[in-house]
Amino acid sequence: MSSIPSSRRSGPSGVSSVWRDGLSVSARHWLISVASVGLGIVVWHLAAAVLVRDPVLLPGPLTTIEVLIRYLKTPYPADGETLIGHALVSMARVLVGFVFGSLIGIAVGALMAGIRGFRAMVDPFIEITRPLPPLAFVPVLIVWFGIGEAPKIILIAAGIVPVMAISTAAGLDGVPKDMLNCARCLGASEWYTMLHVRIRAAMPQIITGMRLSVGLSWTSIVAVEMIAATSGLGFVILQAGQFLNTSLIFSGILIIAVLGLTIDAALRRLQWHLDPSMRP
Amino acid sequence: MSGETGARVEVKSVSKIFRRSRQLTQALASVDLCVEPGEFICLLGPSGCGKSTLLHIVAGFIVPDDGEVRVDGVARTGPGADRCMLFQSPTLFPWLTTADNVLFGLRARGVVTSESRRRVDELLELVGLGSFGDHYPHQLSGGMRHRASLARALINRPRVLLMDEPFAALDAITREAMQNFLLELWERERTTIIFVTHDVEEAALLSDRVCVMSGRPGRIVATEEITLGRPRDEVLRDTAEFVALRRKLRERLADA
After folding, report:
1. Which of A78, A179, A225, B51 has the most Cβ atoms closer than 10 angstroms to its Cβ?
2. Nearest CA in chain A to B163
């Protein structure tokens, strides 16, 4: 706890609550989380082995892992990709759509924060599209763009633009006026203040928007892969379902979970890097 | 530290009207004010009397409808590094360490040299944060943040310091410490200081001259020279002279 200044007036209680029983609060939180995941797996195993006892209805965790490992190398369907291949295809679609959507969303949000008229113009569109499920647009996107990569990427991007625009605009709006004035009277130009103070101060909130967007991207891609694709994790899950290969469905879901967590961890790491107050 | 002293600040018949939802509020009506180089003045008035608006106009954040601000005889229309403002909250940049916060002024003006780091260390030492340079703002206490923002303001060697109730949000003990610290600093540097407050005691304790303002429209209705000797310390607060002065200012404020 070297970071807490010694001359702070806050009495001894502030420090002692951090260390109790030899474990820090964060270590304890982490331990409980790990134990809870472990417990979940045990419950899953018991439900599969004792209650259901039918791998088609509910395969246990061991069967799922076994199938997962088998299909990492074996193509599924026989003339298709391996699970690794499908995962890479889905991941590439998500990343491309996510990057495009984020960039457009951030630009729209910045304009909304900067130009009042633009906000009035864009607001109704955002309000209308935000509650709509992206899936509703799949058929029309297929009519317009066919079943190639374009409709998939456009669907992901379109799904996250409103989220990114709103969080960017909110982040930029939330920067206190005094902080901007302060930069100006320290000799910063208007341009320097915009770039190094206003946008910089809004970064943590923009990344929060990105974290929400990653989840949305996965929702969109799996859905569209189920409707119009011949590769990707959504496609595998749908195929496996049609052949009652439940453990492969679970494997696909597991991979999506791991990939989603990985991207989120990377974004969280970035946020941690940009926002010192997240650190102890 | 610097051979340069404070600048003369002249406010000439400045007026400002705010329009908010079809309602007009006359914030300032033809305010005149002249602050001598190195003088410490307080603008004293109730909340909403436009004292903060006046300070923002001097800083260049708000453009007056009428009148002008001159610094050493030169009309100024926008913000500049010669007049630095300190706000009620320290407004440190939370993503920068204390040392980088202090360095901001030089970096923003593109005048960082090999000397700069030493100057930052000097300033941190001056405000008693010598060993906190690599701490982030959220790791500092309230009083320390205010001292850090003071160090940040001083990096550009401003000739005028504008202070907008900078200590209002601090607890009584920290506030007193900051007031003494500011006086010490001012006696050494002789920067011109315009200090906005609604605290009668603070105004009497700190300044050479108190300008009492009235609200709606904001005007300076009375000016009181403070003839108490300097340096001023805690003992002074309890003397009969100080108590009498405080009462007089309070009466002026009530009349306003």
Report:
1. B51
2. A182
